[in-house]
Amino acid sequence: MGIQSGLPAGFSPDVYDVIVVGAGYAGVVCARRLAESCGFKVAILERRGHIAGNAYDYADEAGVLVHKYGPHIYHTISDRVNDFLSRFTDWTDYQHKVLANIHGTLMPVPFNHRSLRLAFGDERGERLYQKLVDTFGENKKVPIMELREKNDPELVEVADYVYENVFLHYTMKQWGQAPDQIDPSVMGRVPVFVGDDDRYFPTSTYQGMPAQGYTALFERMLEHDLISVFLDVDARDLLRLTETSASVCGRPYGGEIIYTGPLDELFGLDLGPLPYRSLDMVFETLDVDQFQPVGTVNYTTSEDFTRITEFKNMTGQVLPGRTTIMREYPQPYEPGRGQTPYYAILDDANRDLYKRYRARISGLVNFHCVGRLAEYRYYDMDGVTASALELSDEIISEHN
């Protein structure tokens, strides 16, 4: 069916068995499964001018393949997620590594054997590492709260160093909070890795990058005769909900509706906005082969940005003499200002507000919320895919 900008004249929702709002992971995975498993005709309505949601990538003016909405690194322990997505792409063998710039020294994070030697000197760092091995064993992620609970002054010193230099200032920038506003339970979960594996996702069974990029992966998922994609279409202008029915384009709609957008915006924020943090992403092309040694460097003790991403280090793209980097500046999210809501602020009050919005659709048997925004939670790409596979399972079972 294809991809086009805007709705055609005389667009009729009744032609479609399913209307999907959003062309990111949640919406496209559901669309593909329902088209091929049920023979459903699917219309995808996407507010932006492109597919692939926040995973969208493109070649910038310098020819560098960049991720428009920040770095996306594929990793999962799920055989099902990997099997499904691997139908539409080959994967590179990229293994994500992150360094923290701590007072000018680049140290692996999560904090590990090499980090200890860099932070405390070779001799003392090695002795501290052996104490961690003796206490917890090798190749273990140990939350710093567990270090504190051992009541060993040296282990407490390690915990304090990691808290202060890796976690505290970075988190203050990311979430716009003062130290006394940061939940102590979150601090306690910050890990030290007792081992030499300096990958950021050492326990993920599958890691890599789509060989031709994320947008190409989505294009292949959408290659189905029963799927039509309409870009630059704001579903809020077309969709109306009551407690018992849904209408599209002013007429009752009896097919399945899969909604992946912000639930509060669908109701005009009338109970108040669901809070998020956003990011201002600043891209810069440099006339060098490589700017930094890894894909991501976190600035945990300095600067007003949180991290710098260099995309060629992740994609493996060969482009001599030019590279593009991106700095991320956290900021509050304000609806209506053209920002992207990235991180839900998940405290009790905000979860309760989400439940109040969600209660409004509880009586709609054909309206389904799925994805990071619609479920108001943080998801990695594999988590969104898993949620979409589960929802599509339910819909398929109802119709087969």
UniProtKB/TrEMBL annotation:
* Molecular function GO terms recorded: flavin adenine dinucleotide binding; UDP-galactopyranose mutase activity
- Keyword Flavoprotein assigned: yes
Broad EC category = isomerase
Q: Which Gene3D superfamilies match?
A: NAD(P)-binding Rossmann-like Domain
The UniProt record lists the UDP-galactopyranose mutase C-terminal domain at 166-378
Its cofactor is: FAD
Q: Which GO terms describe its cellular component?
A: cytosol
EC number assigned by the record: 5.4.99.9
The name under which this protein is listed is UDP-galactopyranose mutase
| Species assigned in the record | Thermophilibacter immobilis
Q: Which gene encodes it?
A: glf
